[in-house]
Design goal:
elongated, 17-stranded mixed beta sheet, Jelly Rolls
Amino acid sequence: MNRIIASFLLVSALALPARAADGERWDARIVDASGSVAVHPADGSEEISAEDGMPLEQGDRVVTAAGAWAEIGFDGGSLIALRENSDFTLERTETDSSSFLLSLGALVAKIEKLGVRQMRVRTPTAVAAVRGTEFGVEVTVADQTHVGVYDEGSVEVRSESGGTEMLQPRQETSVSPGRPPLKAFALTRFLKHRKLMLRNRTRIKEVRKRWKTLAPEKRRELRHQVVERMRERRQEIRKKKADARQKTEMIRAQRLQEKQRSRDKMERRREQIRRKTGSP
């Protein structure tokens, strides 16, 4: 009997899709972006300008410039809005235990209820464990971390140096390098992002309506198309720069020729004057 059960389990395991063995991953995509938003691929290849609908992979880094912003959707049910001057990495995208790194800047997120799944947002000084909620995270240039919860859910904030603090709705905390989180206090710093949080609630409904599940091969195809468009744009830019350099060099050469002709003409006139006056 034990042999039969063991054989059944072995056959069942072999029948599972390869992806299941590695864990299901979030279908993460850029759903909207404005301004200069760069995606640095996990494989270290050249950065790509973010495009609406662009699939994101584990290890990708999204960087927003001054005045820019980006929205990242996850399976059409969760949304992370990156503010300007932010640096965000999708460290681990398995749905059962995902992790993201905010090195600098700010984000405001609306995450669906995760159940037993785990999601963490890391910063240089803290880790925020999300449990399906509306929350925001900020990281300053001094590596100070701020975490706040809006109207629903909870977030556990743990300092890298030790100490934890549980945030309930309309609460926030701050974590300085080498210090534990401050005791939770009323939402203040994150009130400036409240309009964005309200917008996220509307946006997530729009995203759900438009979201279409993509097979892995379709994600790869879309990603490849974005990379190819970026490659073509780079070639056009390089060609324009090369043409501009060539034009500049031609103008410079023409000016040098004109100067030389002027010098030659002046020298001939001087020679004529010397001949007429008999000057040496």
